[in-house]
Type III-B CRISPR-associated protein Cas10/Cmr2 (Ureibacillus suwonensis), 546 residues
Amino acid sequence: MSEKQMVVFSIGPVQSFIASARKTEDLWSGSFILSFLIERAMETLCSQGLKVEFIYPKASEDDLNPMKKTGYNANVASWPNRFTAFVNGSLDETTNVLKKVDSVVRREFNKICHYAINEVFPKHIQTDQLLKQANHQIEQLLEVYWVVQPYNGHYREEKSTLEARLSAVKNDKIYHQLIESGFTCTVCAQRDALCMEPFDQYETIYELKNKVKNTWKHRNEKFKGTDEGKDDGRIRDNEYLCSICLGKRVARDYFKEVYRNASSFKFYPSVIEIAGKYTYFAILSMDGDNMGSWFNSNTAEEAGKVSDALATFSRRVVPEVVRKEEGYLVYAGGDDVLAFLPVDKALQVANELRQKFGMKGSGLQGATASVGLVIGHKKAPLQLLLQEAKKLENRAKSYVHQEQNQQKNALAIGIHTRSEKHETVVPWQIDGMQTSDLLNEIIELLTNDLSDTFIYRFSEVFLPLNDYDSKDKHLMVEFELRRLLRRSMKVKKEEKELTNILEKLMALYKSMESVKSFVMLLRMLTFFKRMEKQDKGGNNHEDDNA
């Protein structure tokens, strides 16, 4: 029997747990908790006396040492929600160790939620009912899955078998019925808000709410307050949380103690702070394309090189790029990135991350990635914008351009103003040019050289022809663009310069899915034009339309 085992270990749920966020702090903590739990799982696995080699993500003992978690990116969720590893030991030994790892993960999550209850509520109202309710919710949420099998040296085939077994385990999971009968948590709207008094099925909504309000009015003073973004771990007067959402809200205090590093775990800024002088901000959601094929290696060594490259990208490159442009990283786990950005830096950061992912010499040379970038008003519901960012990422990954034989490897942009929503998808490169550079040139053109009627006139002519299919369609668009450029220039241009502008606009048009998409993109670029003017001292309009 083999004395070397192959292991895959996974923690969930991921998207629902992270996305249940009313504030940026909730979003950060959801991501960091999952990253922390995987880190604890890996650390526990290494501490059981068996030799462990992590294939994905790559990790050394220093990487898993909580006392060495320092620096500006110490509070970044940098571990994915799963790991693959080799363990030197018998199947029985490895299985017993994994059972212990499973237990540690569940215990750690329980500690986070119980810590929050102890911090928020005075001892005299921490009744058996409150703790019983919390324990029930904690037990029902966490999903820990793992599989192990002897390793016989055929990495690709055995990894495929192991992944299939993990999928089967997940599909065969037991669904626990979560019966809730009280007043719903104001963040996740899935579980009951914590309440020190039991609920009666015959009570009215008014009576239920009064019980909950009575519980939460007793929270400790440090968690009271109504000013947005002022108090670390603050719970507003109209918020009533379940044990899970409370654990997320207070998680930063917990991690300050765990890592003994208060300076690196400062309060996550609100969207108002992120937006700064603008009334809008950006959310970037990035994911590598076809990463399964990159890990579908013939040997563990090849898979390890990919894992090394992803570790460098997520732990060093991404935090540096986002920080440099005054953005805030939520998580960077391998090829998966979520970040908040100032609206004027969004295109630049998106492009730089894409260029550094898959660049020559990175270990991922030739790999591509797709990005969803949503621009939203700072007063828009955070959960809605997060959902839109993920939808845009999926739309970018679904990008197909038949004429140019392009798939995925795209940027999907959405601008959500107070009254309108515009979205479109563009490839990262157009005729050898970086699309972001091309878009910035057109923004400059719209800002400085063209009259405000240019896009309106073009839309008026060509939107009715969106579904018109003709081999002469490109020629019609080119002819009309040239005519409108001549008419709309504030200062007359030489014919050579005009032709250069026309060629760039036509290159952009030909990369789009339709005339409608092209018009939509031009309209969206006028939004960035207004941001440019605002940056140069213009008015700050709360209700600008794209």
Q: What stands out?
A: Confidence is low (pLDDT under 50) at residues 540-546.
